[in-house]
Amino acid sequence: MSEKCIVGIDPGLDGGIAVLTEVVEAFPMPVMPTGSGARRTLDLPSIRELIAGADLVIIERQQAFPRDSKAGAFKTGEGFGMLKGLLCGLGIPHQIVSPQTWQKDFAISSQRGDTKAQAGLACQQLFPGIDLRKSGRATKPHDGKIDALLIAEHGRRKVNGE
User: Structural domains in the chain?
Assistant: First the structure.
C-alpha cells in the first residue's frame, strides 16, 4: 500500500505548501501579480497542480489581528477563502488547524521564546535534506515552507494515529 499524500498549507502570500508522500517537497506559496503595482495574489492554477492527488490537506487557520489594517485583514480572509474554495471545488478532504495545535506537536511555545526559530529547528531535525530557503540564492530560511512542512507532518501524525 502506498503512503497517503498529505499536504500542509501555511496560507498567505508569504506562506508555503508542503507535500508529504514517499518524497517530501516544500514550496513557497505560488503568487502572481495582480496587474496593479506591486500587489500580488494567490496563483490558484499553480496551487491546484501542487495539491492535485492529495488524500488530505491541512490548512492553518487564519485570523485578522487588531493591529492589522482593514485592507490587510480583508486580504488575509480573501486568500484563506480562495484556498478553502479551491479545496472544496476539487473535492479534496481538508482540515483547518490552529497554529497552537500543530505547534504543540513539536513543543513550539511562545513561552520558550521565538516560535519561528523553534519551528526552524524542529523542521531541520525532521527534514534534514530539505532546502528551507525561499530560493537557491536566498540565505535565510523561508518561514512559510517551514510552517507548511510542520503542518503537513502534524496531519501525517493524525492520519497515522501518532
Answer: 6-159 (3.30.420.10)
Indicate the pairing of strand 94-97 with strand 56-60. parallel
Phi-psi region of 3 (alpha: psi -120 to 50; beta: other; left: phi over 0): beta
In degrees to the nearest 10, what's the CA dihedral of 26, 29, 32, 38? -120
The answer to which of 15-29, 44-58, 70-84, 91-105 has the lowest mean pLDDT is 70-84
| Encoded amino acid at 29, one letter | M
* Type of residue found at 130: I
Please report which helix (H) or strand (E) contains residue 51, including its range: helix 44-51
Buried b (16+ CB within 10 A) or exposed e, 92-111: bebeebebeebbebbebeee
Q: Which residues pair with 97 in a beta bridge?
A: 60
Per the CB < 8 A criterion, the answer to whether 9 and 57 are in contact is yes
Beta bridge partners of 9: 17, 59
Rounded to whole angstroms, how far apart are CA atoms 158 and 151? 11
CA 71 to chain centre: 22
Q: What are the tens digits of pLDDT across the range 59-83?
A: 999 877 777 777 777 777 888 999 9
